[in-house]
TrEMBL record, chain A:
Xref: CDD domains: TM_PBP2
Domain ABC transmembrane type-1: 65-269, 340-530
Source superkingdom: Bacteria
Keyword terms of this UniProt record: Cell membrane, Membrane, Transmembrane, Transmembrane helix, Transport
Membrane-spanning parts: 67-87, 99-124, 136-157, 207-226, 251-272, 298-320, 340-361, 381-403, 409-429, 467-491, 511-530
Species this protein is from: Cohaesibacter marisflavi
UniProt-recorded name of the protein: Thiamine transport system permease protein
TrEMBL record, chain B:
SMART domains, sorted: AAA (SM00382)
Keyword Protein transport among record annotations: no
Entries under PROSITE patterns matching the protein: ABC_TRANSPORTER_1 (PS00211), ABC_TRANSPORTER_2 (PS50893)
GO CC field: membrane
Pfam family, one: ABC_tran
GO terms for MF: ATP binding; ATP hydrolysis activity; ATPase-coupled transmembrane transporter activity
Family of the protein in this entry: Belongs to the ABC transporter superfamily.
Listed name of the protein: Thiamine transport system ATP-binding protein
SUPFAM superfamilies, sorted: P-loop containing nucleoside triphosphate hydrolases
Domain ABC transporter positions: 2-230
Keywords: ATP-binding, Cell inner membrane, Cell membrane, Membrane, Nucleotide-binding, Translocase, Transport
Organism from which the protein derives: Cohaesibacter marisflavi
GO biological process: thiamine transmembrane transport
Automatic annotation (TrEMBL), chain C:
Family (UniProt): Belongs to the bacterial solute-binding protein 1 family.
Protein name in the entry: Thiamine-binding periplasmic protein
Major localisation: periplasm
Keyword Ligase applies: no
Molecular function via GO: thiamine binding; thiamine pyrophosphate binding
Listed InterPro entries: SBP, ThiB, ThiB-like
Record lineage: Bacteria, Pseudomonadati, Pseudomonadota, Alphaproteobacteria, Hyphomicrobiales
Biological processes, Gene Ontology terms: thiamine transport
PANTHER family listed in its UniProt record: THIAMINE-BINDING PERIPLASMIC PROTEIN, THIAMINE-BINDING PERIPLASMIC PROTEIN-RELATED
UniProt keyword Amino-acid biosynthesis, yes or no: no
Organism: Cohaesibacter marisflavi
Signal sequence extent: 1-27
Key words of the record: Periplasm, Signal, Transport
CDD domains assigned to the protein according to its UniProt record, in alphabetical order: PBP2_TbpA
Length: 540, 230, 340
């Protein structure tokens, strides 16, 4: 056998192993700690088997499982289905400000959930324009509460994400294929079958998997818009187990159930699907001859305008309430500034964690063969779906005797935020790293570049774009996330989202809207700083 | 001299066994249908492929323990010989020092090499501002600077027009002759072999079907070569 | 690389920690009283800061708050820490959790001289000292809702378009309050009552903030909150249109309690803090920061905004010992009735 040169840039065995195991260990250890705490508090040792059987015979738990899976699956399918015509229209039509609009697409993602819900309700709820419209055209008793409301909110949150990924797919179709289609006089239907469907077949499973995960764990939305305990989640059952029954064993089991069901389903769906590259540019438009008719233009523009209205109206409602809140109330810089700084510090920590985990994992994935490479996504998925309340309690049990955990609320939030961002980062980093290996792997070996040189001369210049975007997403997610800080708590030193919740809890709704606006602006600013700043300009 | 001795390579459900000797300073062409294993032989010599039994010797030295960078070999590919984000001069300079830390003298050598391939004015351009032929000439400049006794060409000129391809072959032959390099080239064009190669081998189904000095090779075709040439 | 990874991680932890860590200036010569309390008690709008300042003037100590979430989560934090907790005092235990708190064995009787408590019910304060209290109630906007139900019966029989928003009893304290309120009023028929109420329930939220926010946005006609909620709108916003509906059935109470922990190393200080909490200074602060009734202040001295609030005729509260069993049964009934 030929001794392989040590050319592996970001990682060789140890960092990759660390990156793979650390998040999983964190989850397993937290839940294990929860479990180990259970026996003494219960005063009796019950077998896992009997605990499991009590879980599965609990009609409410089973209903929660079914409902969680159903609403998440429906949300994912609906978001993806709606993203198809939208991405197609955006790929075909060019207009001034398209890039800016695609950037703004990230906003629903950053917004604190409670602000987003109230923004949605301002449009779709009672007294909202959509409600008035529905009543106007004779639909009485129009109400978004229940499954429709949950789906509406989830599409609002996830349509932009799905659209971005699919749009990249459309733009990645080689121009030759469109020319070929034009030459052969292919109809839209034929193009859809021979050109677009193969692309969608590769990308849709990934889109579905990540939206499924996001929706399966979106607990506040499901509860607020679900209309009652019919719409219940596994996470609520965990709340019940921990809060009142203090039944940590049951909580640990429920947490396992949630992680295995959700992360397991996601990984399986990834294992049976194709690889694809993402992270290509979103600029420009494709030229296709089948959609030049007046009718098709009309369809595309309607799709774009409707989608923009759907996404922008709740954002505008939240924005206007935020402006109003800032005008009506004196700007409390003494409280807001430190909160913003804390959030930024948390976000920077999260970015560091994300980088330390994602880069070795991305590197690991390109050394794995075929579909096994998808397994590197498991640690990120596991953290993403681990119920925060169980994770928080478990981490607390694990750590409180060794470190002053209340002082560490912010670093722990950094850690968990960073890990939660890993799945998003991997979507961007893995293909970029794979491409470098494909295109330049042999050159790097032949020229005898060592890791440091390869990173400096090849990986960094070629990956700063996806790295910048990953950092931007991580920072934005982290700044907007309430996270575990609420569980470890440090109310005298709150982050922006915690401060916002505190204001709401103290009846200061208007101020909270103002804080929401500031939060969104800060998150967006950091997104742009990383995305545009790090990506750099192409030298030409 | 390059001596490949019963080299066995298995990739998934495909395998090949090859023996081949190329004299020092000569030019050997590998022709044959797609998928026959021509590039695989080059990748094995360059050290990009792990192989099973058998050995590769260059000037009597066993290649097995050597990493790609340590082998007396430079290889040119059809694509991606140049890093698109570096200037032409930087790309060539990598041949002297892969960390791009060069002194003045060394930079002078870079420019001399660019002169040799007639790219003097292009040093500060990015590869995408160059034509296909210019890009491959820049890659060649790097190969010159690396001063390795063996040059492996994996269809680097396949995408160029016939006249340009001929020019490039001439350039490669001249440079190799000047520097005493041994060349193995994979090509789809038998006329390339006729034109430039001292020795030609037909690779088919994971084995060498026919090998010999180029003149006699084409003059006395075996059934396999006949079938390939059509 | 691993060492680098770890040191980078440590550096970032250190960086973020330095932003949180409150330097305790003279920790060396002053004892620290650690008070566990729920988050909203200790925000800039809550009573926490003023009480800390006031108590520190006299105690020769430093008060340090720790707030791991809402009242239930704070108590659960103590349960997780068990005997090793550094908490000296727990402030804000919900009366519905007293049985669990007793059973946990984490608290010990106090030595506070308790007299002149103004509570609508009898309360044994030997371990758990009440410091404020309130009634759960449905709050409405009198500009929008004209026919206000004055009992659960009237709420049930109101037109279907009268919508209420409530909190989930599994994740929220007011939610649990409503659950016990309905159980207290309807007893064995609670499940039926919930079934009849369900057409009026617009939605059930995770916590109070979501529910109250939705109500203020005009999504629902009424929201489950406290009789004292309108006092905030009167005092802070000069708005008198928000009112609590007085129910003839009586209103379920919430009593907020404080207790000294068994593991406390500063028991004298802890007891002194409890005394301060029900003393005149703290009691004056509490109504307009926590928006609850003070426990040791005659009605005549209440702040102006509290004087015109709806006053229930009848206070309801289960015997604390019975709560855990009732809670379990009521929750099952609730789930059963509303899940169909």
């Amino acid at each position: 056998m030929i001794r392989q040169a040590n050319h592996k840039a970001f990682a060789n065995g140890i960092p990759a192993l660390f990156a793979f195991l650390a998040p999983l260990t964190l989850v397993v250890a937290s839940i294990g700690a929860l479990w180990s705490m259970a026996a003494p508090t219960l005063g009796e040792t019950s077998s896992v088997g009997s605990a499991l059987s009590s879980l599965f015979s609990d009609v409410y738990v089973m209903r929660a499982v079914r409902f969680t899976l159903m609403q998440a699956a429906l949300s994912a399918i609906l978001s993806a289905l709606l993203a198809i015509p939208l991405a197609r229209a955006l790929a075909t039509r060019n207009f001034p400000g398209k890039a800016a609009i695609l950037s703004l697409f990230g906003a629903p993602f950053i917004l604190p959930v409670i602000v987003a819900i109230l923004g949605l309700l301002a449009i779709w709820g009672k007294n909202g324009p959509m409600h008035t419209l529905a009543t106007g055209i004779g639909i009485s008793g129009f109400s978004i509460y229940g499954l429709p409301g949950i789906l509406l909110a989830h599409v609002f949150f996830n349509l932009p994400l799905a659209t971005r990924i699919l749009l990249q797919g459309w733009l990645a179709i080689p121009a030759e294929q469109w020319r070929l289609a034009a030459q052969l006089g292919m109809s839209s239907k034929a193009i859809a079958r021979h050109i677009e469907w193969p692309m969608l077949k590769e990308r849709l499973p990934g889109v579905l998997a990540i939206i499924f995960l996001l929706c399966a764990t979106s607990f506040t939305v499901v509860l607020a818009l679900g209309g009652g305990p019919k719409a219940t989640t596994i996470e609520l059952a965990i709340y019940q187990a921990i809060r009142y029954d203090f039944d940590l064993e049951r909580a640990a089991l429920l947490a396992c159930l949630q992680i295995i069901l959700c992360a397991g389903l996601a990984v399986i769906s990834r294992l049976i699907t194709q690889d694809h590259d993402t992270g290509e540019s979103l600029g420009g438009a494709i030229h296709r001859s089948d959609r030049t008719s007046r009718a098709s233009r009309w369809v595309d523009w309607s799709v774009i305008i409707l989608a923009l209205a759907f996404l922008a109206m709740p954002l505008m409602a939240a924005f206007l309430r935020g402006v109003n809140g800032l005008i009506m109330n004196p700007f409390d810089a003494a409280a807001l500034l430190p909160a913003a700084l804390r959030s930024i510090a948390v976000a920077m920590g999260a970015c560091l964690v994300m980088g330390l985990i994602s880069l070795p994992l991305a590197q690991l994935s390109i050394h794995l063969k075929g579909k096994t490479r998808r397994l590197v996504e498991l640690p990120g998925f596991a953290i993403m779906v681990a119920p925060p309340i169980a994770l928080g309690a478990g981490l607390f049990i694990l750590l409180h005797q060794h470190i002053p955990i209340d002082r560490l609320a912010l670093p722990l939030t950094s850690l968990l935020n960073g890990l939660q961002a890993v799945p998003f980062a991997l979507i961007l980093l893995t293909p970029a790293m794979g491409q470098i290996k494909r295109d330049y792997g042999k050159q790097i070996q032949q020229l005898g570049m060592n890791s440091k040189t390869a990173i400096r001369l090849v990986h960094w210049p070629l990956m700063r774009k996806p790295i910048g975007l990953s950092l931007g997403i991580t920072a934005a997610l982290s700044i907007g996330d309430l996270g575990v800080i609420a569980l470890f708590g440090s109310p005298t030193a709150p982050t922006l989202p915690l401060y916002l919740y505190q204001q709401m809890g103290a009846y200061h709704m208007d101020q909270a809207y103002g804080s929401g606006l500031i939060l969104t602006l800060v998150a967006f600013a950091f997104f742009l700083i990383f995305d545009k700043g790090l990506a750099g300009r192409d030298k030409n | 001299m390059i001596r490949i001795d019963h080299l066995f390579i298995a990739l998934d459900d495909w395998q090949m066994t090859v023996s081949l000797t190329v004299k020092a300073g000569s030019f050997c062409a590998l022709i044959g249908p797609s998928g026959a294993g021509k590039s695989t032989i080059l990748n094995a010599i360059a050290g990009f492929l792990p192989h099973g039994s058998g050995q590769i010797f260059i000037d009597g030295q066993d290649m097995a323990p050597l990493a790609p960078a340590d082998r007396p070999v430079s290889m040119l590919f059809q694509d991606h010989n140049l890093f698109n984000h570096m200037t032409v001069a930087q790309n060539v300079a990598l041949g002297i020092n892969p960390t791009l830390k060069l002194n003045k003298q060394q930079w002078q050598k870079v420019h001399d090499a660019l002169d040799q391939v007639e790219l003097s004015g292009m040093a500060e351009r990015l590869p995408r501002a160059l034509s296909g032929g210019q890009r491959q000439r820049a890659s060649l400049a790097r190969a010159i600077l690396r001063e390795r006794p063996v040059l492996l060409l994996d269809e680097p000129f396949a995408a160029l027009g016939p006249a340009l391809r001929k020019d490039m072959l001439k350039l490669v032959s001249t440079l190799a002759e000047k520097n005493g390099q041994t060349i193995i080239m994979v090509t789809h064009h038998p006329e390339d072999a006729r034109l430039a190669a001292d020795q030609t081998a037909l690779v088919q189904d994971g084995a060498i079907a026919q090998v010999g000095p180029s003149e006699t090779f084409f003059a006395n075709p075996t059934e396999a070569l006949k079938a390939y040439m059509g | 690389m691993k060492a680098l990874t770890l040191s980078l991680l440590a550096a970032s932890l250190g960086l973020t920690t330095s932003l949180v860590a409150v330097p305790s200036a003279n920790a060396a010569d002053k004892p620290t009283l650690t008070v566990y309390t729920y988050d909203s008690f200790n925000t800039e709008w809550g009573p926490g800061p003023a009480i800390k300042e006031g108590f520190e003037k006299t105690c020769g100590c430093t008060v340090e708050y720790v707030s791991p979430g809402d009242a239930t989560e704070t108590f659960n934090r103590l349960r997780l820490e068990g005997g090793s907790s550094k908490a000296d005092v727990l402030v804000g235990l919900d009366s519905n959790l007293v049985a669990d708190a007793q059973k946990s064995g984490l608290f010990e009787p106090n030595s506070v001289a308790i007299e002149g408590l103004h509570l609508p019910i009898e309360w044994d304060a030997s371990t758990f000292v009440p410091f404020d209290w309130g009634y759960f109630a449905f709050v409405y906007d009198s500009n929008k809702l004209s026919s206000v139900p004055s009992s659960f019966e009237e709420l049930i029989n109101a037109p279907d378009d009268l919508k209420i928003v409530i909190e989930d009893p599994r994740s929220s304290t007011p939610g649990l309050g409503l659950l016990l309120w309905v159980k207290d009023v309807y007893g064995e028929k609670a499940a039926d009552a919930w079934k009849q109420l369900s057409p009026h329930i617009l939605t059930v939220t995770k916590g109070w903030s979501e529910a109250y926010g939705m109500f203020l946005e005009g999504q629902a006609d009424m929201v489950l909150s406290y009789t004292t909620s309108p006092a905030y709108h009167i005092a802070a916003e000069n708005k008198t249109n928000y009112k609590a509906a007085a129910f003839k059935d009586g209103h379920y109470m919430q009593v907020e309690l404080a207790a000294v922990t068994k593991s406390s190393q500063n028991k004298d200080l802890a007891n002194a803090f409890l005394s301060y909490l029900i003393g005149p200074e703290a009691q004056t602060v509490i109504p307009t920061t926590n928006w609850m009734y003070p426990v040791a202040m005659p009605e005549g001295e209440w702040p102006a905004s509290f004087k015109d609030l709806a006053k229930p005729d009848k206070a309801l509260l289960f015997d604390t010992e019975e709560v855990p069993a009732i809670r379990k049964k009521a929750l099952d009934e609730w789930l059963g009735a509303l899940s169909q």
